[in-house]
Amino acid sequence: MWKSLVVSGLMILFFFIGWPIAKVAVIAGALLLITRRVKPEKIYHEIDFSLLVLFIGLFIVIAGIEKTSLPADALALLSGFGLEKPVVLSTASAVLSNLASNVPAVLLFKPLVPHFADPNRAWLILAMSSTLAGNLTVLGSIANLIVIQRSKRYVTISFWEYFKVGLPITAATVAVGVWLL
Question: Which pTM was predicted?
Answer without folding.
Answer: 0.69
